[in-house]
Amino acid sequence: MAKFPLLHVVGSFESCIQAQEKLTHKDVQVAINKFGGGVYACSATIELISYEKFIIPKGVTLQTDTINHKNLLVWGYFKPEIISMSAVYRSTQYEDGYELFGTTNDMEFTDQQIIARIKYYYHVEGVDYFARTSETSIKVYGLTQTDKKPQPPYLVMLDSTASKSVSKLIWQDNQHDSRGYWVYRNSDGEWQKISDFIYAVDLKDGLGEFVDTANHFNNHLVQYAITTESLSNVESDFV
Predict the structure, then answer these.
(1) Cα separations (Å) of 112 from 102, 167, 208?
(2) Rg (CA), the chain
(3) Same fold, 52-142 and 155-230
(4) Domain covering 52-142: architecture
(5) What is the CATH number of domain 155-230?
(6) 47-76, pLDDT tens digit by residue?
(7) CA-closest candidate to residue 188, choices 159, 167, 219, 211
(8) pTM of the predicted model over 0.70
(9) Taking the CB of residue 76, how many other CB atoms lie within 10 A of it?
């Protein structure tokens, strides 16, 4: 909450009346001169316009650019000539987690370090030439999509230590935009999806595993494949 400065005004009756039209609190006193006559005087407390309102970023908007994979923030000020710089804060949560992401001398900022299908929240703070920082602006968010296919897990193998009656697959994936994985099997010349969706957040250190308990493939060549599904719900090719 901005702290409004207070001005104490003492003046004539006319100035007192004019001041009272803007009062949030008033205390009017009538004085007596040395001859016993009444004179008009007033004492008034007037709330001035806070200087801080001029350095709070206004009209903050955000434009997402899926093609070029970026978020563009634009804002303004009541008095841009008194602004030294603007500080941009970013988080993946609305309520908290905001960290200083960058500063600019302009009234716009481009974030190109984004991952599709992740919401990024932003707010801006103004800093004047006396190094005074404003209150935070309103919060805005951006969410981009992509139709680009993700990469499949870069390491897929069968675990040789597993029981002979089952097939245990393990894979490694360190992509930051993976939503999860599907497991496919080919035992008769046709690929079939054999797993429920495996969420990437359930993997530990990017290491996934799946156990195929089907044991009726004796003397058959069995192939497996793992695909990645991105946060934009686009599935990779087989690996």
Answers:
(1) 12, 42, 29
(2) 33
(3) yes
(4) Sandwich (2.60)
(5) 2.60.40
(6) 444 567 889 999 999 999 888 889 999 999
(7) 219
(8) no
(9) 13
